């Protein structure tokens, strides 16, 4: 793990109070890295059962970080765990959770109408200075922000899975994001130990706009029978230095997620052949073969 993981007091950042909405895979990771960096974090989800699972997941993950970072000094590791965990408050009360926030990061389901509902409701109760950000992978930040009266204090903060491990943070500024908001988002990203890059509000931002077409082309090659799944993956790993092959990666991300992304882009850009629907992908999804999480996708996996 990079030494960047533990960056408490690394920067005196104006953003100290964070509210993360959505305690799933991404939201729990975002809350964790912010707490590790010393932010006060409120993590919100729809019910207490989910929040209990989220808090357990965070605890396990922080313990893993402490074990690696404080290998030589287990007592400092214990302190790090206790202090980081103390920084996180859990809540199901969305309006109350944003009243002290400097920054709200949204990591709920990838549905425009649900994100609109959330942002228009918290826009009315959050303080004037609060910055809103979405962690969306495939939706337009401008469109998400459109329901608020703070389009200048709205941007994208796109993290990568698993958040505590992946170093990159894409900071997305729309045409309406102010310089001040952008600077604050960049400073916060660095303060929580991420390497930040800047991108316009363009579909897929940088990483997914380049990576998803590779995955889709790999699926098309496999569908045509040009090469086996294993050989396509070996080729990209050993021939292009990719840490994972494209079909392995598609299985890891989830074939339903890949399908949702390509369907969304195809609807928006019907003339771009890169985003054309793929029969074999649709078939696997229809059969419930979604990749690692269901035990089968392009490969078979042992169920955990
Ligand atoms: P997830 O399904 O693991 O978690 C979503 C959480 O949001 C759930 O716990 C759900 O109960 C909660 N939620 C749903 N509606 C809510 C509401 N109205 N208020 C409060 N909580 C609500 O999803 P995941 O994978 O964490 O994705 C979240 C967002 O992050 C999506 O926009 C996705 O596009 C984006 N993203 C996902 C990545 C991934 O690899 N899974 C990578 C980067 C971004």
TrEMBL record:
Chief location category: mitochondrion
GO MF entries: (3S)-3-hydroxyacyl-CoA dehydrogenase (NAD+) activity; NAD+ binding
Keyword Oxidoreductase: yes
One BP annotation, GO: fatty acid beta-oxidation
UniProt GO cellular component terms: mitochondrial matrix
Compartments it resides in: Mitochondrion matrix
Annotated NAD(+) binding sites: 22-27, 45, 110, 115, 137, 161, 293
Catalytic activity line of the entry: a (3S)-3-hydroxyacyl-CoA + NAD(+) = a 3-oxoacyl-CoA + NADH + H(+)
Domain of life: Eukaryota
Pathway: Lipid metabolism; fatty acid beta-oxidation
Domain 3-hydroxyacyl-CoA dehydrogenase C-terminal span(s) in chain numbering: 204-301
Keywords: Fatty acid metabolism, Lipid metabolism, Mitochondrion, NAD, Oxidoreductase
Protein name: 3-hydroxyacyl-CoA dehydrogenase
Bilayer-spanning residue ranges: none
Binding site for CoA: 61, 68, 137
EC number: 1.1.1.35
Residue intervals of the 3-hydroxyacyl-CoA dehydrogenase NAD binding domain: 17-202
InterPro entries: 3-OHacyl-CoA_DH, 3-OHacyl-CoA_DH_CS, 3-OHacyl-CoA_DH_NAD-bd, 3HC_DH_C, 6-PGluconate_DH-like_C_sf, 6PGD_dom2, Mito_3-hydroxyacyl-CoA_DH, NAD(P)-bd_dom_sf
Recorded family membership: Belongs to the 3-hydroxyacyl-CoA dehydrogenase family.
Site (Important for catalytic activity): 158
